[in-house]
Design goal:
Elements: H1 2-24, E1 49-51, E2 56-58, E3 91-93, E4 98-100, E5 113-114, E6 118-121, E7 129-130, E8 136-137, H2 139-151, E9 153-154, E10 157-159, H3 162-171, E11 175-181, E12 190-206, E13 225-228, H4 232-239, E14 245-248, H5 251-260, E15 265-268, H6 273-280, E16 287-303, H7 308-323, H8 326-334, H9 345-376, H10 379-382, H11 386-399, E17 403-408, E18 413-416, E19 420-425, H12 430-436, E20 441-447, E21 454-464, E22 467-477, H13 478-489, E23 495-500, E24 506-509, H14 519-522, H15 525-536, E25 540-546, E26 549-557, E27 564-570
Parallel strand pairs: 5-9, 6-10, 6-11, 13-14, 13-15
Antiparallel strand pairs: 1-2, 3-4, 7-8, 11-16, 12-15, 12-16, 17-18, 17-22, 18-19, 20-21, 21-22, 23-24, 23-27, 25-26, 26-27
Helix pairs in contact: 2-7, 5-6, 8-9
């Protein structure tokens, strides 16, 4: 009995001591799991979101939030403009330039870590070359920097003579060389990431000559062929037994020898010839293409000692750029770079920033449009009852910052999310008339009737059978949108961005005071003419004067809004 009493006493004391310790412990800063319930009781940290049509919390990668229309999407078919699959819980993270699940990974920019790889390239414009400041520029360089961005890494890119870079990649550890043509002979010498592009291999002769080359074998008969040492073109001819080669450190050296009559042919490239002749100080009309040999894909060649995990990470990052359209955007923007602009910061940083600018704006507006179209297909929207429509628009408001979502009746009366019935009427708006005619309207610029702010409007019809019974829309504040773009692009002080619509009205601008203005009203004939050129052509570069300063812009157009986007720099 004493033993039992003693055991009980010790147990009671332990419980009291433990209870006292817990009572004295200060609460920690971390919330209890499940404490982040939203207004519907859904737990975002567990991946749950509210599905209005099903009237319940769901995880979208487990259950489709469908409206039972009989036209449910196939799993994985709901990719957004960045290639993110919403039904799997993925959304676009601009800071990390990739799709992610917010409960698995935070969408926050992190400090770049050293890549651990020595990156080397050569002067081979427009793919890669040294800019005026000595840093690497070019189309392939932009792709490499894009890969580093997605990996959260940083690295200095060295610009060396090709032969030096090739031998370093061949003989040193953790070294990568671009742009490198991949051939059967080179394949076992490196580990490869790519392709990152392609180029034509071409034989050139002096324009003062008239002899014909109808095959590669014909080139064996000429006195000499100038070619860059250790380049894929030299290796190709050497493997085929050519003995009439004149080796040079660069294409520019070969071009000078060609026009001076010191070599018969130059084995160059149709893609790089305009740039190489410009750098060599030789007019393109002084040479002629004698024979186009073949096309080669180009890659990033890693030294054999590079860990497979590193190579695989680089390939995955490149593949993601191709899936979400960023790779194609870079390719398209570098198509407008001309030989006389290869040393310009605009031609390099501007081309990358323009692709980011277009992707940022198109991605957001496409996502808003898709969200509104999905909401318009719901029975709640077709009911015409604000108390049923309101939760969906409130959810969209929480997802898209600085966008005012609204529902309009056919007579133009409208309700605003998180507010209710508005005092104005939309029936005089052109976009509203278009929407009530059954069409989606995207990109109209105006002053909001509800807030007085400058906005871009997306409006979609609500249809019941063939009839349009209302409209859902989103009005995005252009000042706030411009500020977000500024943070994304982080342009240097001597560069800025802007976008205009088909009427040359400013939609977005680094200087938000310019928004909704027409360039002809704050500039002069020079900028008015430049904006007219932007509106009438899809992409290019142009020069203009504004406020007494000369400027140059690289520009492009996207289909979502029909807007014309530009990155500009001051020339003086």
């Amino acid at each position: 009995m004493k033993n039992i009493t003693l055991v009980f006493a010790f147990a009671l004391a332990a419980v009291l001591i433990f209870s006292f310790g817990c009572a004295q412990q200060a609460p920690g800063p971390t919330p209890m799991p499940g404490s982040d319930r939203d207004a519907h009781g859904c737990i975002p940290s567990a991946g749950y979101t509210w599905c209005e049509p099903m009237n319940q919390c769901i995880r979208t990668w487990e259950t489709n939030c469908t409206f039972n229309t009989g036209n449910e999407m196939m799993p994985g078919s709901d990719r957004d403009s960045h290639g993110c699959i919403a039904s799997a819980g993925y959304t676009w993270c601009d800071a990390k330039q990739k799709c992610l699940r917010s409960w698995e990974e935070n969408c926050t920019a992190t400090a770049s870590a050293a890549s651990g790889v020595r990156l080397i390239t050569e002067d081979f414009p427009p793919f890669n070359f040294a800019g005026k400041d000595g840093t690497a520029k070019g189309k392939s360089t932009a792709i490499v920097r894009g890969i580093l961005l997605r990996l959260g890494q940083a690295a200095t890119i060295e610009v060396l003579p090709w032969s030096d870079g090739y031998n370093l990649a061949l003989n040193t550890t953790n070294t990568a060389l671009f742009s490198t043509a991949r051939t059967l002979a080179r394949d076992p010498l490196f580990k490869w990431v790519g392709p990152i592009g392609s180029f034509e291999k071409s034989l050139y002769a002096s324009a003062s000559t008239s002899f014909a080359i109808s095959s590669l074998d014909d080139a064996r008969k000429v006195a000499s062929i100038c070619v860059v040492k250790d380049d894929v073109r030299q290796q190709m001819l050497t493997e085929r037994g050519f003995t009439n080669l004149m080796l040079a450190p660069s294409d520019e050296d070969c071009i000078r020898k060609l026009v001076a009559g010191n070599t018969t042919l130059w084995f160059g490239s149709a893609d790089t010839a305009p740039f190489s002749t410009f750098t060599a100080g030789v007019s393109m009309d002084r040479i002629r293409m004698a024979y186009n040999v073949e096309k080669n894909e180009i890659f990033i060649a890693f030294s054999k000692s590079t860990p497979d995990s590193t190579v695989q990470a680089w390939q995955s990052a490149l593949d993601s750029m191709k899936r979400d359209g960023f790779y194609d955007a870079l390719q398209g923007q570098y198509a407008v770079v001309s030989p006389d602009s290869t040393g310009s910061e605009l031609a390099q940083t501007g081309a990358i920033s323009l692709a980011q600018f277009e992707a940022k704006v198109d991605g957001k507006i496409s996502a808003i449009t898709s969200g509104l179209q999905a909401a318009a297909d719901a029975e709640s929207a077709k009911s015409g009852k604000w108390d049923r429509i309101s939760p969906t628009l409130s959810a969209l408001s929480g997802k898209y910052n600085y966008t005012l979502f609204w529902y309009a009746l056919p007579n133009g009366t409208y309700y605003v999310a998180n507010s209710g019935l508005a005092s104005g009427n939309l029936r005089d708006r052109a976009y509203f008339k278009e929407t009530m005619a059954g069409k989606v309207s995207v990109g109209d610029l105006m002053s909001s009737k509800s807030t007085g702010k400058n906005v871009m409007v997306v409006s979609v019809p609500i249809k019941s059978g063939a009839a349009t019974v209302g409209a859902l829309g989103g009005s995005t504040y252009l000042d706030d949108f411009s500020n977000e773009v500024s943070g994304t692009l982080a342009l240097p002080d001597y560069m800025y961005f802007f976008a205009i619509d088909g009427n040359s009205q400013v939609a977005l601008h680094s200087d938000t005071t310019r928004i909704m203005q027409y360039p002809a009203t704050f500039g002069g004939a020079s900028i008015a003419s430049a904006m007219a050129t932007m509106v009438s052509t899809n992409n290019g570069t142009l020069n203009y004067d504004l406020d007494g300063r000369a400027r140059r812009a690289v520009y492009g157009t996207t289909p979502t809004t029909g807007w014309h986007f530009a990155i500009a720099e001051y020339l003086e």
